[in-house]
Design brief:
β5, α6 and β6 form a beta-alpha-beta unit. α4 crosses α11 and α5 crosses α6. Helices cover about 40% and strands about 20% of the residues. The protein has two domains: about 190 residues, 3-Layer(aba) Sandwich (D-Maltodextrin-Binding Protein, domain 2), CATH 3.40.190; about 120 residues, Periplasmic binding protein-like II (D-Maltodextrin-Binding Protein, domain 2). It is an alpha/beta fold and about 325 residues long.
Amino acid sequence: MLNRRHFLNVTLAGVSASALGFAAGKANAQTVEQIQLFVPAAPGGGWDQTSRTMEQILRSEKLIGTAQITNVPGAGGVVGLPQFVNQWKGRPNALMVAGMVMVGAIITNKSALKLTNVTPIARLTGEFEVIVVPPTSPFKDAKDLVAALKADPTKVPVAGGSAGGTDHILFGLLGKAAGVEAKALSYVAFAGGGPAQAALLGGHVAAGISGYGEFAEQIKAGKLRALAISADKRQPGIEVPTLKEQGIDIELFNWRGVFAPPGVSDAQKAAMVTLMESMTKSKAWQDECAKRDWTSIPLFGEAYGRFVENETKRIEAILTDLGLA
């Protein structure tokens, strides 16, 4: 286990080499002896996959010695957050993996603790959403879907994941674009992509929303037709227009990032930022993101903190409209 003194000696030695010694090139970079990754979710999910990919890349790039991963699942991260804030306070080599789902869970669960109680380090990846319909759907593009919502939202049931999640939030944004009160939207929540796909193919819903990876194979096989993706721009290898291309000013990523606990010093925060910068610049990280259909959207330190603040305000407004906040 890495103690505080040893970590500071490792990360602060050679401050002249790009502040904390990480950016002088892999051969000369200071190596963190151990990183402790806190995952407020069960093994196997998106945050857990992110943590284990981080461990793999950080070790292969010789940026760390070892890694320890702790999983504390429950309520979209709200169960684990108090433990990270209170019991991991001041640990200089600790990072919590979290993201947009936790922002929504904090709001809907009315958590006393917020992401402002932890230290923003880096946004890492994002998974954009896709809106799909059965092949025989009369909707040819996202504009047709928005027009139908505007005409009568009760006749346009849309399938997605859990209430208040990323899929539901995107549907709320579509309703807003259509000028429809969010509470009037007909949202059908499913536990996973399989049941949602069955509802789509069975004609029980008009459209479906999920992360692109969830429906990618069905889209490629022609079993579902994609109307739009919620990315900021066209994605390589995906012949699906963005919402913005179709005149609908919506962009939404199910982003994931990392936070240090409260109580770390500015130097310790800078060390973690530099560690994440080195990781995200590596070819190994870029290759892994491509393999997993993750979009690399790195953002660090104070800029990441401002992003989280703005994202929280946006999500809270949508969840309030949906009657979930």
